Amino acid sequence: MDLxxxxxxRRRLIRALLLGACMSPAMAAIIKAGSAAAKEPVTQGFQKxxxxxxxxxxxxxxxxxxxxxxxxxxxxDSECIIIIGEQVFLLRAASEIAFDLDHFEDxxxxxxxxxxxxxAGAVMAVFGDLRAETxxxxxxxxxxxxxxxxxxxxxxxxxxxxxxxxxxxxxxxLDPAFEEALDTFHHESPRNFYAKPEDHGGxxxxxxxxxxxxxxxxxxxxxxxxxxxxxGPEPIKMPDQ
Length: 241
Description:
Layout: H1 11-18, H2 25-33, E1 45-50, E2 53-55, E3 58-59, E4 71-74, E5 79-84, E6 87-91, E7 96-104, E8 112-120, E9 122-126, E10 134-137, E11 141-154, E12 158-172, E13 179-184, E14 191-194, E15 205-207, H3 215-223
Parallel strand pairs: 8-10
Antiparallel strand pairs: 1-5, 2-3, 2-4, 4-7, 5-6, 6-9, 7-8, 9-11, 10-11, 11-12, 12-13, 12-14, 14-15
């Protein structure tokens, strides 16, 4: 099947993935199981590559494994899904992420820790490793997390960070005094981090609503490694959606 016209984050392909379409038999079985009890092995590395996706400047391919120090970028109208251990990453168009990790190993029980630098675009990630803290870094914010779901989107004037579920401690790069500990269940506390607080009443950080990402995406990513989100296997209707 030619997937060049599809994008992993779009509803049609999300629903196909949830039903196990366009996937290997082992991956389809994991998605259908959709639970932490799933025992099927998970293939590491790039699961989907749509359009111009590059790893360290070279065209990425399905099955290619990501290592500490690698940088992944996506071009316009391009997206990808990557599995590293128990962690899954979805990069949308025009995104860049650097895996500046202290360590990670292959496998469902792999150790994972260090820094992830999101320099551009939009990235969704789900983390299953509770043993090592990972720091997600954007141009304007940092989030120290353990075993969470997170969505970040970068604009020149602001960075949007949603702790979809789990625990994290947020910091503003422009306001060293700002620190916020979050413990969320279902997108309760998205935040905007502003590049020019003077344009926002002097606020460096401000609450925001859930935007530009969906429960179906989180369900899909967690299912790829045999888990379900904290809020459950079914998407929850959010206000004004």
